[in-house]
Amino acid sequence: MTIIDQMDIRSVCVYCASSRGTPEKMRSLARRVGARLAADGKRIIYGGASIGMMGELADAALGAGGKVTGVIPENLKIKEVVHTGLTRLIVTRDMHERKKTMFELSDVFVTLPGGIGTLEETLEIITWKYLGIHIRPVIILNQDGYYDHLLAHFAKCRDEGLMGGGLEKLWRVCGGEEELYDALEPDGVE
Question: Over the stretch 118-137, which tens digit does the pLDDT of each residue have?
Fold first, then answer.
């Protein structure tokens, strides 16, 4: 058993979409995940927006009595419509400070469906793990196969010799919500 196997996860960083055009099924997913993490006593660390999946995640967690910390750069306070009802809001100078702050506050990183920003944050946290900057779990929720193409691209990188074999151990893929919740239990973390 490793230290990670015994890890007590208190803070979950969630990467997800802040787009106003997010379909209802994905907003609903964010609400369910937010409420469940709160019910399980997990503090949520996220990007600080009040719109899209981000807003739904935060509102559901807060509604379930959870604690939510938003981290948003000064220049995105208007664009992402900053959430003003959070347990804690941290405003950073820029995106680099935002990502570093979210990293420092989190025990585990979970990726829900999202666009280019979500992908960028996920790939960076995986890269940091590859570089030995951290050993924390990174979980990709592949709900309804949303990330099938990304995972296929990772396999192509490996097959083409552009990514070493075995790097899939840097992240865990969960095919559905229950698998995600199980993965966040102390004996479920890899």
Answer: 999 999 999 999 999 999 99
Residues near 40 by beta carbon (within 8 Å), at least 6 away in sequence: 181, 184
CA distance linking residue 14 with residue 118, whole number of Å:
9
Spatial distance between the Cα atoms of 15 and 17, rounded to a whole number of angstroms: 7
Please give the Cα distance from 123 to 4 (Å, whole number): 21
pTM of the model: 0.93
Q: What is the CATH number of the domain that holds 133?
A: 3.40.50.450
- Residue 25 DSSP code: H
C-alpha atoms less than 13 angstroms from C-alpha of 104 in its C-beta half-sphere: 8
- Enclosing domain of residue 18: 4-183
Write out the two tokens for 60. Answer: 């559901």
